[in-house]
């Protein structure tokens, strides 16, 4: 079914520009490209194979259309956190000229990225601002995560309908276990994958009701040992302690989870629509569905608000007129209707452009859009996606994910771990403030 997908109500930020949308074709982008030979570097996250391939395809298509512009792709795979990779590149003087930015506030305050050129902003329906400025061109709209499940496994376990409450979700896990089916695969080898479930429960029990919780934590007004965060981490821990997660999770990479699913080694994966293509490629005949996991109040809370993530231009590249022009040509090419439609289809993405984008969406993606368009759906940000006063100390995220690994391995979760989270948060805030002086 041809599905029109528009990102017009996913966030509450004001539109960054009222200029009519530009809609250059790939050919138009090529014809206006600088004639002199120019080169620039590019860097983006490579954790998701489908997105990695879509990015590489876009770069290759642009390079073919613009032979005078050479793009050096610095992106690397592996389990290293993307933030750590960017910091390493910066330390060795290889910070990308055009970079997929996720920790925008951190790098903007460090002077590593520049305010976006005005000509970029006319392309987007909504580009959130930080301190009144636009730092990122949103690559894809925020997509919710949910349960991707094997229809065969559910049928074998006698699960006849998608859970409507969290208790029903837990009951489904028990039914799978009773049939000797491992319920959940989990890519615990990759640090970023830990954020999937951790953020799901934090959004349910904290951010859905208090989106300013982070700033209150920074002021010492709330604690991770409070009822909300404690319940969130109890629910997170329960998935592992009750045997709902495959025992080999610490050695399972995110890019192995699709294989785990289609080969029947697990019945479910908690992830987003970017995995749909990967699963279909692994086994075109594999039948699967997707649904959001309800919280304990019966609400649907998803990661669905616009963020500050997207393409950024480095401060250094912005000061080089030729590089800036070449990068702008790539941005116009990337978001041009033909190319951007291909990208959206590859990643099962939600478009961010003003120009209407339509592509053939699979039933699973139709379900995602249905959830996103439901007025009852509560859209939140993940703990690491807030900015301004609500920004999480960037270095705290991976530290906490590793802390969660620690208590799962030891099997001794308690309030003491959450008190350590408070201490680390405060220490990070203090260190970051001192570094700015």
Automatic annotation (TrEMBL):
The keyword Nucleotide-binding does not apply. One of its GO terms (cellular component) is ATP-binding cassette (ABC) transporter complex, substrate-binding subunit-containing. GO terms for molecular function: maltose binding. It holds the Pfam family SBP_bac_8. Keywords: Signal, Transport. Residues 15-30 have a biased composition (Low complexity). Gene3D superfamilies: Periplasmic binding protein-like II. Belongs to the bacterial solute-binding protein 1 family. This is Extracellular solute-binding protein.
């Amino acid at each position: 079914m041809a599905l029109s997908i528009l990102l017009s109500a996913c966030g509450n930020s004001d539109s960054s520009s009222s200029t009519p949308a530009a809609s250059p074709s790939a050919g138009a982008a090529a014809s206006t490209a600088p004639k002199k030979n120019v080169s620039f570097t590019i860097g983006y996250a490579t954790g998701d194979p489908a997105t990695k391939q879509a990015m590489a395809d876009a770069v290759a298509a642009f390079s073919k259309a613009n032979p005078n512009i050479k793009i050096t792709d610095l992106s690397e795979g592996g389990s290293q956190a993307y933030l750590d990779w960017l910091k390493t590149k910066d330390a060795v003087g290889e910070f990308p000229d055009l970079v997929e930015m996720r920790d925008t506030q951190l790098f903007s305050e460090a002077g590593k990225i520049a305010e976006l050129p005005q000509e970029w902003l006319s392309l987007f329906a909504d580009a959130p601002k930080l301190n009144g400025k636009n730092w990122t061109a949103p690559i894809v709209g925020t997509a919710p995560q949910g349960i991707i499940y094997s229809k065969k496994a559910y049928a074998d376990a006698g699960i006849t309908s998608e859970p409507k409450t969290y208790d029903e979700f837990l009951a489904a896990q028990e039914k799978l276990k009773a049939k000797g089916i491992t319920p959940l695969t989990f890519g615990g080898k990759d640090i970023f994958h830990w954020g999937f479930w951790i953020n799901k429960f934090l959004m349910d029990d904290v951010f859905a009701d208090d989106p300013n919780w982070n700033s209150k934590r920074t002021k010492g007004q709330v604690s991770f040992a409070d009822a909300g965060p404690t319940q969130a981490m109890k629910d997170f821990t329960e998935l592992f302690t009750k045997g709902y997660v495959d025992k080999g999770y610490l050695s399972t990479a995110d890019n192995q989870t699709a294989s785990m699913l289609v080969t029947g080694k697990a019945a479910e994966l908690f992830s987003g629509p970017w995995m749909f293509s990967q699963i279909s490629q692994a086994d075109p005949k594999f039948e699967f569905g997707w649904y959001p996991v309800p919280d304990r109040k019966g609400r649907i809370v998803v990661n669905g608000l616009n963020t500050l993530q997207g393409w950024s231009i480095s401060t250094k590249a912005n000061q080089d007129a030729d590089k800036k022009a070449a990068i702008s040509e790539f941005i116009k090419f990337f978001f041009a209707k033909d190319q951007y439609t291909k990208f959206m289809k590859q990643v099962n993405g939600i478009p961010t452009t003003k120009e209407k984008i339509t592509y053939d969406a699979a039933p699973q993606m139709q379900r995602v859009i249905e959830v996103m368009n439901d007025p009852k759906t509560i859209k939140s940000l993940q703990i690491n996606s807030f900015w301004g006063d609500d920004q999480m100390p960037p270095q705290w995220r991976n530290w906490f994910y590793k802390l969660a690994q620690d208590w799962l391995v030891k099997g001794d979760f308690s309030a003491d771990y959450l008190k350590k989270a408070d201490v680390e948060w405060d220490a990070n805030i203090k260190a970051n403030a001192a570094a700015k002086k």
